[in-house]
Structure of DUF3097 domain-containing protein:
Amino acid sequence: MRQYSPDLTPPWKKPKPVPEVPAEPGLVVEEPGTGFCGAVIRCEAGTVTLEDRFGKHRVFPLEPRGFLLEGQVVTLTRPSSTTTRPTRTASGSVAVPGARARVARAGRIYVEGRHDAELVERVWGDDLRIEGVVVEYLEGVDDLPAIVADFSPGPDARLGVLVDHLVPGSKESRIAASVTSDHALVLGHPYIDIWEAVKPSSVGIPSWPRVPHGQDWKTGVCRALGWPENTGAAWQHILSRVHSYKDLQPELLGRVEELIDFVTAPH
């Protein structure tokens, strides 16, 4: 028969029980062994993933007495629900679970082409639906003056426009200046095409290649990278590597956020 030895540890040396806290998304805790402090973004069987204020992720085991909550030792437990909702949208905004899409505003955001619209939808889609902002696309900016005149922007119907390669002295900059008003805002990024606004590291390339003047830029990119010269397929590959705002260049992020703020601002 197996013999069991009594626990002779003095009561004052036994570890005190600590609170058990569900690892709900958004809960901010610290892992004392590494000093890593962050918010819970997911909790799976046996592990919890934290995100710090710089966007860095770390995965830790769900061990007893394994974390600090407001300086106090706690044991994180898996939430009772087996599914957890993301606390942030792809744009970095706070997610609103169960929020319904707002009825579309009279205001609009125009972008230059289909690829631009698809990228904006991928990152800002949740935000735009909650705000009731519709994104439409142009085929270039040459017809922008006529489009703006037909839209007739006003206090209750603001118009925002995102333009590729908006640099001083360019044709695009002159067109933008001609239609800008109190109720129409034209902003842009410095990239030749929206492809270039995706970080090369996200696509898995060292940098976006330089394409000789006079060549079709997208086709030239495919050639330089050794991709099949199918720009539609190339774009789908690029778009598939975009998961959040962190995959985009800041020169694009700031402009899109500014346009959303412009068209949703109170009268």
